Amino acid sequence: MKKSLLHLFLPASVLCAACALLFYPAQAAAGAKRGIGYCIDILIPSLFPFMALSVFVVKSGLSASLGRLAAGPCRLFFGLPGSAAAAILMSMVGGYPVGARAVAALCQEGEITPKEAARMLCFCVNSGPAFVLSVVGMGLLHNPQAGVILLVSQLSASLLLGGLCSIGVSRRRQGQAIPSKRLDAAQALIGSASDAARSMLSMCCFVILFAVLLDLLRVFVTSPTVSMLLSILLEVTGGCSDAAQQNLPLWILSFTIGWGGICVHFQILSSVSGIPIRMPRFMLFRLLHGLLAGGITFGLCMLFPDAAPVFGNTTAPLRGTLVGSVPAAAAIVGLCILLLLQCRKGNSMETAKE
pLDDT digits over 169-185, tens only? Predict the structure, then answer.
């Protein structure tokens, strides 16, 4: 019965989409233009450097170096090997797909097992400080305190989900992964840049596609509230913008950022092929992340009421920037220090061999 309904639903949906594209080409073109703008102004500037860096950390062996320092806490709190600490850190400072791509790289390099990778994808999906602080806090709300509350809520919810996922997990590692051969710095940089470019292309395609879909749906949806709900369901940037323009409470924006939107879900799942994660389970944890983040934001607004009435409409174009992101800057500096130490260690070993 379910398969027959699915076989009827899919052709009908494709037919409706094709008719909408034929009868409303101007709206489709406007949506595509808006999606391209999101990619150029927000997605690529704020995510591409971190995606390249996250893969480089794994391929160059820096994740293993960091893992030796973080093995105890990572095993205790998350039931994961120390090498997973780098991916957890990048997921908190990079942006939605960055942590997922780092998890996939760890799995491909043999640092973690596919089962561990699937568990990490339940909580290593976060919006980065560049988006929360710059785009939402300053760009949409014109209030940096609100951006800080949103960021703290997102990261706290992620850590809570990580602890929830580790309940019942043995702290003794089972199904040991087999690490692959490490690359030198030049090869790792080339591979990480190429990997990030491919991932960014896939992500931009989804952003443009969902922007077109949303503008076509708005042709038939006249209610601003329903239009906003569709935006929150499908695409996080438009959802946050619509929620801010309608002066909704801060916890709704926090839920929107934690949920991420179906567009982000497809971006992530497209970049982690080979990891056994089911779509319903992944979306359930995205929903839990949104609810936890919204609840934490509600509590923080009760403690800091001055950050609650911060809403105001904005007509300025949204811009993504890395400027002012202290956690991101600290992460880059720390990883650069690890890289220098790793290079120095490699040179010392070569000198000793000679």
Answer: 765 654 444 444 566 67
